[in-house]
Amino acid sequence: MAGITDRPMRDLAARFGAGLVVSEMIASAALVTGHKEMIRKLAPSHGLPHIVQLAGCEADWLVRGARIAEEAGADVIDINFGCPSKRVTNGFAGSALMRVPDIALSLVEAVVAATSLPVTVKMRLGWDDDNLNAADIARRAENAGVKMITVHGRTRQQFYKDTARWHLVRPVTEAVNIPVVVNGDILGPDEADIALDQSGADAVMIGRGAQGQPWIVGQVAAHLDGRKAPATPKGSELIDLVAAHYQDMLSEYGIELGVRVARKHIGWYLDAAGEVSNAARRPIMTENDPHAVLRLLPQLFEQTWSQAA
Question: Does 57 qualify as catalytic in the annotation?
């Protein structure tokens, strides 16, 4: 979720009732060498423990990155063994590490030894269907000191195709005594119930399902806890929420970059609201003046709702 679960998005998820939020994936080597974008990603969200996710394939960079994160106020270090991006796996990081479990575990051991913080791991089922080794890696990670495992119910070779196979996470939950979190295709309370039942996991993680509807995380959390769920924002409340999210992104990135980064979020909000033609979207998706974008938002959402009616 690099480029998506930034500080403004995490703040919204926390506001609606997420139990935990995790930073965007941070390249450990870039963080250590002072890359401004990685330093930005290190900023905490508000109101919840600060979980920093690091990626890398060399122990020295990960160790130094973990120490920088700890000094910056992190509460938990999460190591990424799950990213399927070619840019990441071509560098032998992310889910490519599941092809070399011994190296993956040496990274875990180095980070656990280097920090006093809890260390967790995010992974996939394996590299492909011939190598479903998540349970073995999870067992070894627990023995190395990892405190929680999150498993996306796809292999790396699936990327985001087909559907998540939550039942294949069950071998992981049966292999370890630490909490296991199931991830992938959890779009609401119904999917959360089924994913937990099939996987035997202790919790769910929502990623792409929160795009354009960050309140979903709180609704799922309330459902699982037996509490009243926060209502889905509608009408002027939704327009105000999107406008506030947009302005927060401008503050996070600066106006020139923020205008561009925010476009995908506006698109997802519109997708969640209903059918909107590309022609109707084009003005707001190409506009560079934030004031014009904020004027267009109510018009576009009202058009969407009138078409749905």
Answer: no
